[in-house]
Amino acid sequence: MTLAPDTEAIYAELLALRCRQGDQQAYRELIACWEKRLFFYIRRLVAHEEDAWDVLQQVWLKAFRGMGSLKDTRRVPAWLYGIARNTAFSHLRATRHQQMQQVDPDAVGQVEASDDSLALEDAERVHRALDQISLAHKEAITLFLLEDLTMDQTAEVLGIPLGTVKSRLHHAKRALRAAIEREGRQ
Description:
Number of domains: 2
Shape: globular
CATH architecture of the largest domain: Orthogonal Bundle
């Protein structure tokens, strides 16, 4: 379902209020509205698609359990992305810990290229370029440009000041442009 940004925000707020009252249909609608966006965000942070689906399931469990603690229902987008970010980072820490125990230290940290096949060549180039920039820059640009969060919401999700978001976006765009140009030359 695609709604205008204001309508979407109001709808998310209403769903949150219904969820807090235990409305199971509201939970299903909340998942339907946010699952794809949250998955794409998590997928940008987690190397393997199967792991991203596992992280997303954990996100929904945490969201359902924590719905009562959501004081301001207008914060639903930032709240959900915050849960997704924290859950993805927990997964990355656990994965890194497991890798250090099981794998040769030289193999740790290798990132598998995304095997998603996108129809548009330009979109593929952008996604490949995103894999080449720092995590801090990737997060900022993903939340702001790809997930359509406001700068204030991006700052809230990342837990950083608004000025830092602006700086990261500026540097992320430059790094992304450079990565795309490098690929174009190859």
